[in-house]
Specification:
Strand content of chain A: 15-25%
Order of helices and strands of chain B: HHEEEHEHEEEHHEHEHEHEEE
Helix content of chain A: 25-40%
Number of helices of chain B: 9
CATH superfamily of the largest domain in chain B: PurM-like C-terminal domain
Strand order of the largest sheet of chain A: 2-1-7-8-9
Radius of gyration of chain B: 21 Å
CATH class of one domain in chain A: Alpha Beta
Oligomer: heterodimer
CATH topology of the largest domain in chain B: Phosphoribosyl-aminoimidazole Synthetase, Chain A, domain 2
Distance between the termini of chain A: 46 Å
Shape of chain A: globular
CATH architecture of one domain in chain A: 3-Layer(aba) Sandwich
Strand order of the largest sheet of chain B: 8-10-7-11-9-12-13
């Protein structure tokens, strides 16, 4: 495939692998977190970890929009469909996330909720136009990459006077999540999560640019390398991180120059700023309440805000007690450390959100990496 | 079949503008007219003409293989095929990969009130053409009509009967460590033909479904006399699901080489765009054969000599593995599991 195969070339990968092996110092361990689920997926799908020396370890980060969505938000979406009779439109992955009372959006659909899978928010707009007498709500999730399209849809609905369309806004922000990890006791004081650097997001950075990460490099002395989602991008970023660690520096470097600039997409940023404003606080699965880490719809567009329109109130709901998604999302535990992994919790019957999305650490390990686990003899 | 059946109906069916009505499934004269003027006109043969509650077939030497399959594909017409040809080939292929020679077919139609008769006519004509190409005879059928909104145009269930020669047993539990895994051609064509149609993905050349009858190819493979363990056609769930089923049935592991698996560039591009894995995408004209390693080259040559197997490849090996995992050496140089597809990725694909 043109323009893609170049970034999956095995010979080039071997070359970078040799460089990493040569430059990673034998007496040292290198622990890097890939923030994004997109990177987690690429690492697992292409077998990138097999090309790394034993002392270079990747820690999966919380950058999976479905995974970090807390149960309480799914409950709100289910409420919209079942209690308010709205047509709820959402991305496919969200359908299977477990919610309260043994429900999920998929199960709510089986109970009569009109819940539809869409590929883009524009599909939800089309549904709203086609059903003028029904309330149509788009369940908006995702990081900075998916936020601009939602902003465009709200503006479009406003311009068209589409009175039956609204958005349940659960858009979250990357930098506060990174900050939350860096400020967590496991990283700051306990040292149980050794972190030597980050692979920075690919698509998110095309929107926000590389500048927001400079703070982490300066303030927390952690190198950040922004990388694309292709496996060679990831390999190259790991090599760049090893070099920074060896040199004792902490800078923001951009491996993904073909798409990311320092300032990002200022037009998209302006659009988002026009429609959304910061929430004072937002609950993340795994990270808990994180201040100023999510967006809500501005008063000027209040008519399109499902929370206001249906007078929804947020009620936090606890995860399954045995589920380790929270610790896994913070990098404190690995999927195999969870008692539910591969037994009660599998892709067909997810207990936790990390098993739902293909970008989740548990689903990625279950789907692509189980062959590495040592068979437990019962 | 050009015999005109005298139905005694005042006016013939309007095959240009007419639509399916509830009466067409009601058991009365309207149903008879639909059968005579539409179904029998395309599919008619002496067995169907018996006109009894069941078809009386001659006895045959050999064991019987029977398979049944329901078809609910959406859209009904797609590049490279339609629900009619799919309903014939889907069942013919299930019988053929058992090593049997498909002979007879039955078809059950669930029609939705209001469905255009012109479309039904096209679909049944396509079934007739497919049956002729596959060398099977439609011997029994059924038609039901459901109210508008209770179906989606047309659903077709077909059952196929084939004859398996004595002494030949192909079965999913016969793969042994050391065996070779052969694939008859590119994967993902059918599923992506349908997905690209649904998602309005435009390519320079449209992706065509690979819908085709495999009984010619299976006969050619059996004729080599090679030590074939089993054959499967990787439909829903794709190559990944088929190989996982075999690994579990046989109690073995399978190692694949990603670089050896043929995928059309346009299929790969469409998968990339939609975030899908070609290994999970349905095929309707491909087969997987597992054979003793020493016969791999001979079978591969026989596959490549057949029009439906030109791009055949040796894609992997059967290994010992108590966990029954399917693993793959990636083109990138790493190794990963190839798991069953989780959940419903591509609904209504066949």
């Amino acid at each position: 495939m043109k323009y893609v195969d170049e970034f999956r070339d095995a010979a080039l990968a071997q070359g970078i692998a040799r460089a990493i092996a040569a430059e990673a110092r034998p007496g040292r361990r290198y622990n890097f977190m890939e923030f994004c689920g997109g990177h987690t997926h690429a690492i697992s799908r292409y077998g990138v970890a097999d090309l790394l020396p034993e002392n270079v370890r990747m820690i999966h980060g919380p950058g999976c929009p479905v995974c970090v969505l807390p149960i309480g938000r799914i409950d709100q979406a289910i409420q919209l469909a079942l209690r308010h009779g709205a047509i709820l439109c959402t991305y496919a992955d969200t359908l299977r996330v477990p919610a309260s009372g043994g429900l999920s959006l998929m199960r709510a659909r089986a109970r009569g909720g009109d819940i539809r899978m869409v590929y883009a928010v524009s599909d939800a707009l089309a549904i709203a136009r086609a059903h003028p007498h029904k309330e149509v709500v788009f369940f908006a999730i995702g990081f900075e990459t998916t936020t601009p399209p939602t902003a465009v849809a709200i503006r479009q609905a406003c311009a068209e006077g589409l009175a039956n369309f609204s958005v349940l806004c659960c858009h979250v922000l990357t930098p506060p999540a990174i900050m939350s990890i860096l400020e967590s006791p496991e990283v700051r004081t306990l040292g149980s999560v050794p972190l030597d650097g980050f692979i920075g997001p690919a698509h998110v950075s095309t929107v926000i640019g590389s500048r927001p990460y400079e703070f982490f490099a300066e303030e927390y002395r952690k190198p950040v390398v922004i990388a694309g989602f292709e496996p060679l991008d990831v390999m190259q970023a790991i090599l760049m991180l090893v070099r920074q660690v060896n040199a004792g520096v902490a800078r923001v470097e951009n491996e993904f120059t073909r798409a990311v600039t320092r300032e990002g997409n200022t037009k998209a940023q302006a659009l988002v700023a026009e429609v959304f404003e910061l929430r004072r606080s937002f609950e993340w699965r795994g990270l808990g309440e994180v201040p100023y880490s999510a967006l809500k719809i501005r008063t000027a567009y209040a008519a399109f805000d499902a929370e206001r329109r249906f007078d929804l109130h947020y009620t936090p709901a606890p995860d399954n007690k045995a589920c380790e998604c929270g610790a896994i999302l913070r990098g404190v535990k690995r999927p195999l450390d969870c008692k539910l992994f591969g037994t009660a919790c599998a892709p067909e019957t997810p207990m936790g959100a990390c098993m739902v999305s293909s970008e989740g650490a548990c689903a990625a390990h279950y789907t692509y990496g189980r062959h590495k686990d040592i068979e437990v003899v019962a | 079949m050009s015999r005109v059946v005298k139905t005694g109906h005042a006016r013939p069916l309007d095959l240009r503008h007419g639509r399916v009505e509830l009466a067409h499934g009601g058991g009365g004269r309207a149903m008879l007219q639909l059968i005579h003027e539409l179904f029998a006109r395309h599919l008619g043969n002496d067995y169907l003409a018996q006109g009894n509650d069941g078809a009386l077939l001659p006895s045959a030497s050999g064991r019987l293989v029977i398979s049944t399959d329901s078809h609910v594909v959406s859209p009904l017409f797609f590049p490279g095929g339609d629900i009619g040809s799919l309903a014939v080939y889907g069942t013919v292929n299930d019988v053929a990969v058992m090593g049997a020679e498909p002979r007879y077919l039955t078809a059950g139609f669930i029609l939705e009130e209001g469905f255009p008769l012109a479309d039904l006519d096209r679909i049944v004509a396509s079934m007739a053409e497919a049956a002729t190409r596959a060398g099977v005879m439609p011997v029994a059928g059924d038609t039901k009509v459901v109210k508008q909104g209770k179906g989606d145009g047309v659903f077709i269930t077909t059952t196929g009967v084939g004859i398996l020669p004595e002494g030949l047993t192909l079965s999913g539990d016969r793969a042994r460590p050391g065996d070779a895994v052969l694939l008859s051609g590119t994967i993902g064509d059918h599923g992506m033909a349908i997905m690209s149609q649904r998602e309005h993905l435009a390519f320079d050349a449209p992706i065509l479904s690979d819908t085709a009858p495999l009984n010619g190819l299976t006969a050619a493979l059996l004729a080599t006399g090679a030590e074939l363990r089993l054959m499967r056609d990787p439909t829903r769930g794709g190559l990944a699901a088929t190989l996982n089923e075999i690994a579990h049935q046989s109690g073995v592991g399978i190692h694949l080489d990603e670089a050896a698996i043929p995928v059309k560039p346009e299929v790969e591009a469409a998968c990339e765009l939609l975030g899908l894995d070609p290994l999970h995408i349905a095929n309707e004209g491909k087969l997987v054969a597992i054979c003793a390693a020493h016969d791999a080259e001979r079978l591969l040559a026989a596959m490549r000599a057949h029009p439906l197997g030109r791009e055949a490849a040796l894609v992997g090996r059967v290994v010992e593995d108590a966990r029954h995992f399917v693993q793959m050496q990636t083109r990138f140089g790493g190794r990963r599991m190839v798991d069953w597809l989780a959940g419903e990725q591509l609904p209504r694909i066949c």
